[in-house]
C-alpha cells in the first residue's frame, strides 16, 4: 500500500479542475465506453465496455483486476479507481468517442469527480453517471430537473424517486449536449446502457472469481 496524502490529493483536484472543459460537440458519435469498478477478494475489478452508437450494442470489453491503492475516501474515489479504469480503457482495441463513467463529474465538492479526472487524463469527452448526490441540490427548470452545485447546473437528472441518475458534465461535454444525448443512452434500465453493460460484466466476473 502506497503512502497517500489526502490533503495533497484534494489540492491536486482543485488545480486539475481548472483543466475541465465544459463544452463540446459530439459530432459523428459512433462509439461509447462505459466504465465501472466492482471489488472481489480485496482487489478492484475494472471493466471498460465499448458499445456501438446509436444501437448501444456491445462491441468489445476488457476486464482488469488489480490492487486498489487506497481505501474508499468520499470525494477521492478517482485516486482509488481511475488507475484501473484507465488501464482497462487503454487495452481496448478501439478508441471511444465518449466515456460514461460510474460516478460524478463536476458535481463534486471540488468539481473534479472521477468522470472529470478520467476525461482530463485521457483527453476524451466524458459524462458521469451517478445514483447518489455528493453535493448540491436538485432544482426544476420547466420540464427538467438538474443538479445544481454552487449556483452552477452540473448534471441532468434522469428518472425519479429512488431511480434517479445524475448525468454530469465530465470533460469536453456541455450540459446541452447531455440533454440531447440522454434519451438515446437508455434501453429500459436504470443506468445508461454503456455503464449498465459494464456493471453486468463486472458482476459476472466477480461471481466467477469468487468461485475460483
Feature tags:
30% strand; alpha+beta; 212 residues; archaeoglobus fulgidus dsm 4304 fold; 5 helices
Question: Can you characterise this structure?
Answer:
It contains 5 helices and 9 strands; from the N terminus they run H-E-E-E-H-E-H-E-E-E-E-E-H-H. With 212 residues, the chain is an alpha+beta fold. The chain has one domain (27-210): archaeoglobus fulgidus dsm 4304 superfamily (archaeoglobus fulgidus dsm 4304 fold). Strands 3-2-1-4-5-9-8-7-6 form a 9-stranded mixed sheet, sandwiched between helices. It is globular, with a radius of gyration of 16 Å.
| CATH class label | Alpha Beta
Largest sheet: 9 strands, mixed
- Give the mean pLDDT: 96
Q: Please give the radius of gyration in angstroms.
A: 16 Å
In DSSP terms (H or I, runs of 4 or more residues), the helix count works out at 5
The H/E string reads: HEEEHEHEEEEEHH
In angstroms, what separates the terminal alpha carbons?
25 Å
The coarse silhouette is globular
CATH superfamily: archaeoglobus fulgidus dsm 4304 superfamily
CATH 2nd-level architecture: 2-Layer Sandwich
> Which range best describes the helical content: under 10%, 10-25%, 25-40%, 40-55%, 55-70% or over 70%?
25-40%
Number-wise, the strands total 9
**Beta-strand level of the residues, as a percent range?**
25-35%
Whole-number tally of structural domains: 1
Q: Strands of the biggest beta sheet: in what spatial order?
A: 3-2-1-4-5-9-8-7-6
Kindly identify the CATH topology: archaeoglobus fulgidus dsm 4304 fold
Structural class: alpha+beta
Uncertain stretches of 5 or more adjacent residues: none
